[in-house]
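Two proteins were folded this term; both appear here.
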Amino acid sequence: MVNYPNGKFSNRSKIINYSRRGMSLEEDLNLTNKYYLEVNRAVIYKKPTPVRIVDVDYKSRSTAKITEAYFQSPSTTDYNGIYRGLYLDFEAKETSSKTSLVLAMIHPHQLEHMKKILQHQGIVFLIVRFSYHDETFLVFAKDLFEFISETKRKSIPYKWFKDKGILIPYNYQIKVDYLSVIDTYVFGGKI
């Protein structure tokens, strides 16, 4: 119970964590990957989206402005790199839903790419943030494909992430420490 100076009382039982409000999953992953690179733990980068530039306004070289561009081809996944001698590849998704992740957010060409990485023994996974719950999960591609093959659902329930996904630890220095999950589950032999 809080007693405010204006004489009003508040009996808020739920404590809300505002520590990461405004931070997107992509921003957190970019900061995490920058940290991994700085401490020489891994080399992982965000893949650029292939764009075809059609028209540029060249008033001057320093103020050149792209006025028309198109996506050249569908991109594969968001991030890739190398860690402990193995190739890593993953897609990142963020949802404000408190109940599920819509499967349509993961495009067919991305799923095909993930299957190819699995065929070549790369480490491939999905990182999903449920912003409503302030939780970020890692799901290995094999588990994702198993879910897709066993259901006709158009979304993946939050409960499935709680059961099959791995909650990624958050701390100030390493925003989305997904390599700690890889250490435990891949190099620790849990999968």
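Next, the second protein.
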Amino acid sequence: MRKINEYWIEFSRPRAAEPPVSRGWMFFYEWIDSVMGAIIIIFILFTFLFRAVGVDGKSMQPTLQNGDWLAISGINFEPRRGDIVVVTQPNDVHEPLIKRIIALGGETIDINFVTHEIKINGETIDEPYIAQPTQRSFDVEFPLAIPEGFVFVMGDNRNNSKDSRASGVGLIDQRYILGKTRFRIFPFNSFKIKNASPTYTV
């Protein structure tokens, strides 16, 4: 009986409290947990919804800069005038292109390289996003009727961009549009991108 009582006394005796985890370690664990959660979410987004592409060159200045990284998506994409898109159609540049859609299938585009006017279906458009007025021409002749299923693209840096004005790039088959730019990944201080449609001048 005495042994039982001794055992009961020992069992019922309160144990020394374990030392609490320091606040610094708790913060570290919470930070790691948050980072891992963010990484998983980013991985899912860029696996199923977006692709990351880098900008190489100056053809889209001032809207995009050399070295920018963009998130693009082709989900539920329907080309619209003003969209900035990534094009994988074979060309004599031998690389994918990032350009802005200026005219759509079924439209007629005319460019006057002297007055710098661009007309779509006979109406002059205003483009606040370009670097300089359009004065550089290539070998494509205007006016140009665009077939259904194709788009006409140009870089915002009009005088330093090889685009649909050149037969080596030409009209873009919509099936070769990888997607539309949605936002800027890097640099971090400028996420918004101007997918701005040109407006008609009055």
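The helical segments are 2-12, 23-48. The first strand starts at residue 51 and ends at 54. These notes refer to the second protein only.
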